[in-house]
Amino acid sequence: MALTDRRILLKACFNFRDLGGLETVDGRRVRSGVLYRADALHRLTADDLDVLRGLGLRTVIDLRSKGEIERHGRVALADHDEVVHVHLAMMDEIWSTEDMPRDDEAPAPEVLGEGYLRMLEFGGPAVATAIRLLADGETLPAVFHCTAGKDRTGVLAALVLGQLGVPEEAIAEDYALTELAVDGTRAWLQVNDPDVMGALPAWAWRAPATTMLAFLEQVRAEHGSIPGLLAHLGVSQATLDALEDTLLGP
User: Fold this and answer.
1) Which residues contact 62 (CB under 8 A, 6 or more apart)?
2) CB burial class (10 A; 0-12, 13-18, 19+) of residue 9?
């Protein structure tokens, strides 16, 4: 399955895609139609919500901070949709745009990769809980998301895919697909929230594969492997085995 074929096209959410179809190193594939990653679900239109209902979602995992949810709300699925919302904050509060280097000071991939690893100092419990939820077939189909669908969502996606045995290059390519969402996101923000768009430096819109590869390299350096990192976060081997049984197909 081509990477671009996995995208779910919506009117007000531009970084929603199926993680299914990716091949593992042992020739299996991540199951399609059971696990999705996304950006800002709080701004979905009525038509977008109908598309989500068609996916049969059972669980929405929200990786945003408490403050973001208080400011923007959550995905507006109705009670009768029987979708469970789970809040698992990956960060105590979103990074301030005032602290970001400006356009001509874009951090090196190694610096951004280190930032992703350090994110787990607060977000580790959220990752561990998300892995346990996704290992339970009763929670699927599921989607996890943050605001841009790049950093927090990208880290969790990388850890899930890496545990499933998806090669690092394919994980990095999936991460880089976020750049396909930039034009739609910027156009939406220009109309609906221009202050946010103007506050972000140009490099913050990008998701180069080198950033994800740098993160994965640092995971190896500190923990030996993704399974080693997840064990460090308290995820049991039984849960990791169940994750693979649940999410992998032939």
Assistant:
1) 41, 69, 74, 75, 85, 86, 87, 88, 144, 145, 146
2) exposed
CA distances (Å), 60 to each of 34, 50, 84, in order? 12, 15, 6
On whether the pTM is more than 0.90, the answer is: yes
Q: What is the CATH number of the domain that holds 34?
A: 3.90.190.10
- pLDDT mean values, one per 10 residues, the chain (250 residues): 73 95 96 96 92 94 93 79 92 62 72 94 97 97 95 97 98 94 86 72 86 97 97 98 96
Please indicate, yes or no, if residue 36 is contained in any of the structural domains. yes
Under 8 Å CB-to-CB from 198, ≥6 apart: which residues? none
Angle between helix axes 109-134 and 209-223 (nearest 10 degrees) is: 70
**Residue the block writes with tokens 């998806």:** 166
pLDDT of residue 199: 66
Please indicate, yes or no, if residue 104 is contained in any of the structural domains: no
Total Cβ atoms within 10 A of residue 79: 6
Q: Which residues are catalytic?
A: 146
Q: Tell me if the bond preceding 141 is cis, omega within 30° of 0.
A: yes
What range does the domain containing 169 cover?
3-96+112-245
Between CA 123 and CA 126, with CA 175 as vertex, the angle to 5 degrees is 15
Integer Cα distance of 149 and 13 in angstroms: 10
Would 159 be classed as within a structural domain?
A: yes
Total of domains in the chain: 1
Q: Which segments of 42-123 are extended strands (E)?
A: 59-62, 84-87
Residue 107 lies in a domain: no
